[in-house]
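ok here's the first one, seq then struct tokens
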Amino acid sequence: MSDEFDSLDAIEKAAVEAAVNRCRRLAAQIERKLHNKRPVHFVDKLSLADFHASLERAAIVLRQQKRQTQDTTEALPPMHSRRTLPRTAHPAS
């Protein structure tokens, strides 16, 4: 995963970092709220929905990056193209 992240351009890295930081903040907020509540079955639906949306956005960014990496890799010529094969000597005509 680290290599995939390192291969992103600055805008993609910023998007991934922002999504991850947003998820961390929301998780900390949910943890604080749950810690301060009495033991009751409680779910903050808005925070959970916001957390889910942030995770979805992070997944979209990572899928787009993966697709772009695959497209770039597929566009490269094969390692053994005709240009890299040794030329055979042709008899003089």
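and now the second one, same deal
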Amino acid sequence: MSRCRKFSMLMLLGVVPMFAMAQTPQPPPSSDEPSAASSPHQQRAMHDQMMKECMKKEHQKDSSMSKDQVKKDCENQMKMQEQQQQPRD
């Protein structure tokens, strides 16, 4: 084999693995964490969905609570979760 062909083969062998690695799909962010969403819109949508689920659960626990009280309770729960998920120094 000529030098040119050898060099071409070596270049090709070096490029193919890099191309294959670039095509590997990344795992989606966890749906449990709003901060894992990549855009502010996605974060807001995730937060809204979590609030709806929380409010539904809280209302099922105690249907005598007002909607405002249920909302406040859920907001407090979500704040607590965010504080627990933040890395500590």
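notes on #2: The radius of gyration is 25 Å. The helical segments are 3-22, 40-61, 67-85.
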